[in-house]
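We were asked to recover a plausible sequence for a given structure. The inputs and outputs are reproduced exactly as logged, with field labels preserved.

PROBLEM: sequence recovery
POSITIONS: 190
GIVEN STRUCTURE:
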């Protein structure tokens, strides 16, 4: 790995090295732009219940955001990471066909939980290496939670207690390895 190659599991940039968020990223989704605006250099987690109709699901909103970025901020590079069932790659591409944002968006498809976690990190590395502003959309972080639950079960099987206050902070730190890569550095560094 050369010194200029981004690491798949990049380091979290310390808060002292981050520039304040000072420029908005208009998504074209009124509920986000008005109620929870997204700033350049910021991460956002979109939560919602499972079982919503497909047209208003978390994935549908994320895809509307991708469309809004193409329309309102075409200088921002976009990456979409999706989990697909084994052998479902062709069907996944078919489901995206005709999306106005597809031509300008890198799409990473993962056929499994581990692949999804690696693809999410790789998408962040791609965005960091590209420089400038980027939007990385990860369709689901559920595998990260499942991995965490498996680690907890393995610890419990070894009679190692994980106290609730430790579990919560450690789980947040686990999510931070991905989400805290979003930032703008002081001095203009990517």
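RECOVERED SEQUENCE:
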């Amino acid at each position: 790995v050369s010194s200029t190659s981004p690491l798949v599991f990049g380091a979290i940039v310390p808060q002292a090295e981050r520039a304040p968020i000072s420029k908005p990223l208009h998504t074209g989704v009124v509920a986000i732009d008005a109620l929870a605006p997204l700033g350049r250099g910021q991460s956002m987690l979109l939560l919602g219940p499972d079982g919503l109709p497909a047209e208003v699901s978390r994935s549908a909103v994320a895809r509307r955001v991708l469309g809004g970025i193409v329309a309102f901020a075409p200088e921002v590079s976009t990456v979409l990471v999706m989990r697909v069932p084994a052998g479902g790659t062709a069907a996944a591409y078919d489901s995206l066909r005709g999306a106005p944002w597809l031509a300008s968006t890198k799409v990473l498809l993962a056929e499994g939980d581990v692949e999804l976690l690696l693809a999410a990190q790789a998408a962040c590395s791609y965005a960091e290496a590209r420089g400038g502003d980027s939007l990385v959309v990860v369709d689901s972080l559920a595998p990260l939670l499942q991995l965490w639950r498996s680690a907890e079960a393995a610890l419990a099987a070894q009679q190692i207690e994980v106290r609730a206050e430790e579990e919560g902070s450690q789980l947040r730190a686990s999510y931070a390895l991905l989400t805290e890569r979003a930032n703008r550095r002081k001095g203009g560094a990517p």
